[in-house]
Write a structure and sequence with these properties.
The chain is α/β, with parallel strands linked by helices. It contains eight helices and 17 strands. The strands form five sheets. A five-stranded parallel β-sheet has the order 2-1-3-6-7, with helices on both faces. A five-stranded antiparallel β-sheet has the order 12-11-10-14-13, covered by helices on one side. The protein has a three-stranded antiparallel β-sheet with strand order 15-16-17, with no helix packed on it. Helix 2 (37-47) crosses helix 3. The longest helix is centred in the first third of the chain and has 14 residues, at 11-24.
Length: 249
């Protein structure tokens, strides 16, 4: 059983979430709720939940403020609930942290709760640290969280040389020669990294233009990367690639 606290300054939102959890997630017991940063921190200290539903905008601050004032960092799973907030959502995606848009979708709620149950007791401080950093940055965050089957890893975006699609998985290649297989599609990372110098140069390849050594014109075109890899460039992407490379200067 997951023991949950809801922190939201809208009483109607709290009531709706309680009702949804009763109907769709019977494995969750709501043990309390609060409307602000101070009251929420006090309730967490008193009741020690293993799951927190946390709104962004609260009565006396933000959900991020609450996480920052916890003395030892959270030892519970966090699911953010929010209205459409582009900057916050971008931060969630970089940190690979679950969020739910209001009004909540029952299926997405169930998926988030199931994931929280699987990860109970394994809250990764690196993810939350990256999230808080990303929220404060007006520009694109410099780090990203990658989930593999074995671990959760925080990496510097500038260390990513390229990404290669493999069905519903993506392989990341790094400047130190290492690589990671991540269970998300290349399309998702193309969107996530669009504010960095990455370009989808082929259906199966996303390249960091900062790590391009040369453009080879043979057989339609290849990017020679600094790690020695040759990345094919599709015919329809050729002009965009050339223009992007010229723009780097």
């Amino acid at each position: 059983m997951l023991r949950a606290i809801i922190i939201d300054d809208m009483p109607q939102a709290v009531q709706l979430l309680r009702a949804d959890l009763r109907e769709y997630c019977p494995e969750v017991e709501v043990i309390g709720d609060a409307e602000g940063v101070v009251s929420g921190a006090r309730l967490i200290k008193e009741l020690k939940p293993n799951l927190l539903f946390l709104d962004i905008q609260l009565k006396d601050g933000t959900g991020f403020d609450l996480l920052e004032i916890l003395p030892d960092g959270p030892d519970f799973q966090v699911i953010f609930t929010t209205v459409s907030d582009a900057h916050a959502i971008r931060a969630f995606r970089y940190a690979a942290i679950d969020y739910l848009l209001k009004p909540l979708d029952p299926e997405e709620l169930q998926e988030a709760v199931q994931k929280a149950a699987q990860l109970a007791g394994q809250q990764d401080k690196g993810q939350l640290g990256l999230l808080l950093d990303a929220v404060k940055q007006p520009t694109a965050p410099r780090r990203i969280v990658l989930h593999t089957q074995e671990k959760i890893q925080v990496v510097n975006v500038e260390d990513i040389v390229r990404c290669e699609a493999s069905s519903n998985y993506t392989t990341f290649f790094f400047t130190d020669g290492s690589k990671l297989l991540v269970s998300k599609t290349l399309k998702e990372f193309e969107k996530l990294l669009q504010d960095h110098p990455f370009l989808r140069v082929h259906q199966s390849h996303l390249a960091n233009l900062q790590h391009v050594k040369a453009f080879l014109k043979t057989e339609g075109g290849y990017l020679q990367m600094q790690d020695g890899a040759l990345v094919p460039v599709s015919f329809r992407k050729r002009q965009a690639v050339l223009e992007a490379l010229e723009g780097l200067g």
